[in-house]
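Entry 12.
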Amino acid sequence: MGKLMVDNNTISYKNILKVGVPLIIQMSGVMVMQLIDALFLSWYSAEAVAAAITAGLASWLIICLFNGTAGFTSTLVAQHIGARQEHKIPAIILNGLYFSALSSIFIGAVTLFSNNFFAWAGHTPVVQSYETVFFNISCNGAFFNIA
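Predicted 3D structure (tokens):
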């Protein structure tokens, strides 16, 4: 069989970091917001911190499923700019916004079951009530995270 030829000049860690660093910074923003929430809530009570961490992770798990998919909108826009097909970009952006809106409706529907979910987890009633509130607020603002 033929040998796979790779041009070593085009593959480098610099190129990987050029693409990866903005993605790392974007995802780190969510982590920083969660840490700041926990810091402020630590001044209120230990139960609030426990609830914020658990509910924050649960909400991010659900939001992440749609956030990754919606993120392809920017990839498609970049490809069409590169292919000089700018006339297709408005339709791509509109579809991305439709997807974000439908995703937000689905995520909002999930909040209807949040109280039962956290009760099933076996947390104390105080922590459970805080988790439900934090989860619902995080999920109901998901559109702004996804879009």
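Annotation: The mean pLDDT is 86. The helical segments are 13-42, 46-70, 72-82, 89-110, 114-120, 125-140, 142-146.
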